[in-house]
Amino acid sequence: MEKYGAGAIVVSAYDPDWPALFEQERARIQGALGGLALAIEHIGSTAVPGLPSKPIIDLLVGVPNLDEAQRRYVEPMIALGYIYMPEYQSWLPGELFFRKGPPGPWTHHVHVMELSHHRWQKLVLFRDYLRAHPEAARAYAAIKRELASASKDDIAAYRNGKTAFVEATTAQALAWGTMRSR
C-alpha cells in the first residue's frame, strides 16, 4: 500500500487562495527554469473554483524535450525545495514528477512533460471542462470525499477509485474541446 504523506487523505473545502499560491509557485519555477519551461499550467482540483481538493497545488510544466528536461531540470527543482520522484515514471510514463512539502502532507506536485505529450491536452481540458460544468465538478467532489473517507491513508486506492470518473469525464472534455474549437 502506498501511504499518503503524514496521515489520512483529507479533501478540504475550496480555498480561494489556491490560485494565488499557484501564481507564486509558477513565478518561482519560471524564474529557476527560465526558457526551459515553455508553459506552466495550474491543473488538478485546486485549479477549479469551488471544487474541494486535497490541498496540493498541481503544476503542469511544458518542455520541448523530456530527456533534456531530465538532465537540466532536476537540480533547479531541488533547489526550490522539490523532491524528484523517478519511481513515479512507471505510473506516469513520459513525464518527470516532483513534489514539495514536509515529508507529507505535500503542498505542491509538479508534472513535467513535453507539450506534445498526449496527457498535456487531457489534463488541461479536464480542468477546463470542470470549470465550465459545475454539475461535473459537484459529482467529482462527491466521489473524492467518499474515496478519502474509505481510503484512509491509501493514496493508490484513492487515485484508482477516481479513474472511471476521470476517464469518462476526460472523454467528454475532449469532445467538448473539439466542439469548442470549431
From TrEMBL:
Protein name as catalogued: GrpB family protein
InterPro entries found in the cross-reference section: GrpB/CoaE (IPR007344), NT_sf (IPR043519)
The organism of origin for this protein: Bradyrhizobium macuxiense
